[in-house]
Amino acid sequence: MKVFNISLVFALIGSVSSYSTSPSSRRELMTKLANGAIFGASAVVLSPSADALEMCPPKANNCVRTKWTPPPGTPKDEAIASLRDALNAYPQEGQADVDGGGWAIAEDNLAGSGTARVEFKSSGKGNFAKFFNGGKPFVDDLKLEVEDSGVVQVKSQSRVGDSDFGVNKKRTDYIGNTLKAKGWTV
């Protein structure tokens, strides 16, 4: 059994080094090895190109993972400018009965690493907030990563709970539709 396990590890390491660029960190290597061990060696090659954003947990009802693609030929800096415009167009009072507590950019490194995190808050007025969150607003995180190609990897997830009643999808759809009106593919 030990020989088989060692052989599997060497096979996975070989598949990582022969089909993709070499991992830049031990963490990335271990992640790729784990992905290969769980989903097969081909999953190592087919993993998403975004490094900062992980996938939503399996069967998660409180998470949305998608991407927004700018029009062909759009440089990264122009994609970032359009993304900022779309974020700033999101109403502070929320929309479609979500995000009534406003939003704030918590981390902004779009100009550097191409990443950002935006915190969205519920109004805190509903029965769920009163009973399950002590009357405090629920907080969701929208994480963004802009690739060199200008493609934006998106993840919106509730911090607590198992379901968000479609809030994260409404939010990403609203921002995505703002970009779609500018010629983006969402």
Task: List the keywords.
38% helix; five-stranded antiparallel β-sheet; alpha+beta; disordered N terminus; 186 residues
Q: How would you describe this protein?
A:
With 186 residues, this protein is of the alpha+beta class. Helices cover 38% and strands 19% of the residues. It contains 6 helices and 5 strands; from the N terminus they run αααβαββαββα. The chain has a 5-stranded antiparallel β-sheet, with helices on one face. The radius of gyration is 19 Å and the shape is globular.
Strand and helix layout:
Layout: H1 2-19, H2 26-39, H3 41-46, E1 63-68, H4 76-88, E2 103-109, E3 115-121, H5 127-132, E4 139-146, E5 152-158, H6 167-180
Antiparallel strand pairs: 1-5, 2-3, 3-4, 4-5
Helix pairs in contact: 1-2, 4-6
Strand content: 15-25%
Give the number of DSSP strands: 5
| Silhouette | globular
Q: Give the helix proportion (percent range).
A: 25-40%
Describe the main β-sheet briefly.
5 strands, antiparallel
SSE ordering: HHHEHEEHEEH
